[in-house]
Amino acid sequence: MASSSKPDIRPYLAKGARAKLAKETINTTIPALLKSHPFALAGIKNTELIRYSPISQAFAAQSSPTASSSAPSDPTTTSNPLPPPQVPLIRILKSDTLDAVDSILQSTNNPKIKVCALNMASSLRPGGGVLSGAVAQEESLCMRSTLYASLSPSYYRLPEDSLIYTPSVLVFRSASNTDLAKSSYYYTDIISCAALRNPDLVKVETGEREGQWVYEDGRDREMMVLKVRHILRVAREKGVTHLVLGALGCGAYHNPPEEVEIDQGVKNESGLQAERES
User: Fold this and answer.
1) Domains, the chain, ranges and CATH?
2) Are 122 and 141 a contacting pair, CB within 8 Å?
């Protein structure tokens, strides 16, 4: 842990130094934490690769049930978790993913809430570029929590119709990469889902959406809607009460933000409607 009398320099490390810290975290810090935190270790063992449905059926019918029907129990879940609300409330805010999780946990004393965060994952390798010193969202999650240990190489290349569900992820670092006091550790579930990578786009020339970029191939949009729908469905089936999402695929993967709408996944998920809070 950094001394309180000196500024922590780890957020400003060069890429090589970040890579070195990542390797230390993954090879030494996380294994030690798993030995002393049985809930976190159970989360690794209970991690699942969950497939939505065959892609061809998904495009044809957008109504296939998720492939997961008998998931192992989450050791941090109470026997009677609160059901997700019938009308989800969507809040839009600027925040680090794990800071948003911590804020939710700090805002209530209700032991029945269940928080889950979205990992905007690489489809090619566990943790994306964490071992090479990259600093995107997935890499941050893997540097600050036990998530990396749950991302089995056997899951990759991550199928387009699949996501990884990891319960009981232990968070042990802050957004500035300073070690948290043990009394400040917290747990969250994490859904790892990969967006489409560099899809072909076209610019709308006329109409209400003039000037916006959209998918050239409609099947790409359908796949992204399916991914959002899959995230929401799995979260609901796992009893998640608070879901922290992000701009899935709208950064380095160059998906158009106007097309990747959480509302689209909600509208296409049976029984769900959404309200936005301004």
Assistant:
1) 10-254 (3.40.220.10)
2) no
